[in-house]
Amino acid sequence: MKKVYIRTFGCQMNKRDSEVLAGALERRGAELVDDWESADVVLFNTCAVRKHAEDRVFSILGLIAKKAQARGEDKVFGLLGCMAQEWRDKAFKKAPYLDIVCGPNDLYALVENLDEIIARGKKALFVDGKARVDEFYSDGAYFSEDREHSFVIIMEGCNNFCSYCIVPYVRGRERSRPSGDIISEIKLLIDKGISKITLLGQNVNSYSSDLSFLELLKAVSDIKGVKELSFVTAHPKDASVELFRLMAERENIKKYLHLPFQAGSNRILKLMNRNYAIEHYKELVMAYRDIVKGGYLSTDVIVGFPTETDEDFQATFDVMKELKFETAYIFKYSPRPFSKASKMKDNVPKEVKERRHKILLEFQRSIAER
Ligand code: SAH
Ligand code: SF4
Ligand code: F3S
Q1: Whose CA is nearest to atom 2 of ligand 2?
Q2: 133 domain residue, yes or no
Q3: Cβ distance 167 to 201 under 8 Å?
């Protein structure tokens, strides 16, 4: 029986992908292990959203591969997820110890071919998005690391093309799973003792299949055994008063909203291709605060986007001061391949990015303390 070690980086989508992958491999007789040393197959499910995350992956994987080689151990190494899709066959050049490179939409192909890859001992590249993603999610769905809570992917990909972001290029266009598959998955998890569910998608509220997002949310909230229901990530363009009303009405929907605003200056928002003005964002938040009593609000912010001036940054600071998020994830802009913004000059100096990052972090900490 082969032993498989999976390590996950990046967002909750990746975390859930890794669980489903683990489930599907386990179903085929693999044993999952917690340490790479005892594994025959070492898989890293990776994130490409910022360069820093990528550098870490290559450095950790490289170190492990070197150690294994020094000990004369013959392990199979796989780079999976968003970095795999970004690097494609170039990953084999960059990291010659790799045996497998597999993008996020091809994980089922990996599951179905792993034994053959090991037997053949050749390099395997899966990046054409041809695997049956719906079948994949059903196959390993029963697997959840947490006993109480599970993520459930309802849609994948992104059509928004925010100018700084690599996600649409590595995850592909938006695709929603049929509601029947999602509901079966949730029922399966409930049978296993799960009572808290988080619906996942890069733009969870642009879900659209046989049901709309609001209809799906209602249907899941109606499932017996769902004690707590939440969803991430919402995009301001698809958030609505109707959504907030439903959150307020349904007892088992968590009063939690993650609504990234990214920047406070309309000039920067436009360059980011976010498709809303900050005034609209503020109206949404005021409606949320008003309708969802005791609601928890979190956000994402980027500092140091190309051409960001002190005034632009001040506008971001002012939004944080005005709206008082319960949590804010603050990132320094990192130019990413394929993205439109990477063609602009990354002209905010590192020290300025760091200073702005620190100012927002400290401000957010002071709010959280209060
Ligand atoms: N689909 C989600 C999450 C995308 S990635 C959404 O649209 O909200 C999570 C966060 O990483 C983004 O909200 C953004 O704040 C940040 N991010 C994305 N690309 C980045 C980049 N190139 N540099 C710095 N931060 C980035
Ligand atoms: Fe990236 Fe924007 Fe899509 Fe979010 S909405 S994944 S930030 S392109
Ligand atoms: Fe990262 Fe891919 Fe998620 S780039 S943030 S792991 S969609």
Answers
A1: 162
A2: no
A3: no
